[in-house]
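Re: Re: ligand-bound prediction request (bumping)

Still looking for help on this. To restate: I need the protein modeled with NDP bound, output as structure tokens. Inputs repeated here so nobody has to scroll up.
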Amino acid sequence: MSYAQDALKEIFREVVKRNPNEPEFHQAVQEIFDSLEPVIEKHPEFIERGIVKSIVEPERIIKFRVPWVDDNGKVQINRGYRIQFNSAIGPYKGGLRFHPSVYEGIIKFLGFEQIFKNSLTGLPIGGGKGGSDFDPHGKSDAEVMRFCQSFMTELYRYIGKDVDVPAGDIGVGGREIGFLYGQYKRITGLYEGVLTGKGIPFGGSLARTEATGFGLCYFTAAVLADHNESFAGKTVVVSGSGNVAIFANQKATELGAKVVAMCDSNGYIYDKNGIDLDAVKAIKIRDRKRIKEYLTYHPEAEYHEGCKGIWTIPCDIALPCATQNEIDEESAKILVANGCKCLCEGANMPSTPEAIAVFQKAGILFGPAKAANAGGVATSALEMSQNSMRLSWTFEEVDAKLKGIMENIYRNISAAAKEYGMEGNLAAGANIAGFMKVANAMMAQGLV
Ligand code: NDP
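Reply:
Sorry for the wait, this slipped through. Here it is.
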């Protein structure tokens, strides 16, 4: 075994030992380490000076009780988290996830990924992530507000516009960010850009809502263009029907594709005529209902229980935009057998390592999450800039900057893969390009 392999293996063993029962975090670390061997061969100082060992250890983990009272007057207790993972290149930045599956290992995996993603945007933002095991499904607006107020009553001590700037993620959209912001302002008396994804009247950026989904399509379009291809005339499957999925569908359609399937955590819809996105927006955004309701708008479409079946629908391009590990080896094989030529990840870590191996073996164009979905956080950083300047840019200005950032990310990761002898391997290119900037900043700042 080489020096680099040995050293990375040893550090990974330590990660597993120090973070037991956190498989998602182990998976995220392993995925980065798999690409770092040639980097360590060239730069053994990243091992010798403890950079790799430090980068897998969060700077700070904050864990707290979130008590609130439901509409029946009953006390409910949830658990809140904020993991401030790495501030080498800027203040911590990353979303909040409210979902019953949230525990420390999920927030750690997301925070770790966020370090490299934020680095790839080229903007000065460090990595962090937070959330709670609170489930907003089926809760009244008043319950969601009381929960958010209680969550912020603890979180406000640890965040600030130059310290840590949270945003949305699964279960945290405009409504939740509004309640969180209101409580921060009330406690601190500060009107500052401490959260992104805010409403437009109180400091939000135009195009932030659309940014992750639009950015995913700009990235995918750049990958396709480099292979003399485009979205025009292609059949696309988009999983999920939340923020990322809806705007990925919108942009892919604008670029000439036909999106034929979407899902939620109960099941998927297949509409061979192309999904009617206005109906999906009405069901999921306006009414907060289940995707199954699509049949009331389009009885000719199909609905199937369970989400996994969505990957059996033949498509040219797949855009997973729901959640982690939603595509396993079996689904990956079906996608490839059905002729899928390109898969770019809108969700964080939606493909298992076995699924990625299938895509790479089949030679399909694979865009990893930390590059492909970086448009959301990039536009959050643009929101921070506008807040600092006390100015607002137009939708077109923000959208043009987003497009430029996504195309630049593609160029940079593609070049990094080539430089380290892995041409075409965008997963490795993203890991290496994201890592180098943070590792060099950490080296320059000494042991901190
Ligand atoms: P939303 O809460 O808006 O939507 C999530 C969607 O995925 C919903 O349709 C939800 O269904 C579905 N979903 C959630 N869990 C599961 C599951 N276990 N199985 C099947 N479907 C599921 O979240 P976002 O759209 O914001 O986030 C989606 C993904 O994109 C996440 O991985 C997130 O980390 C990532 N991401 C988001 C960014 C953003 O800016 N929002 C930025 C970068 C990445 P249901 O309605 O039933 O809950």
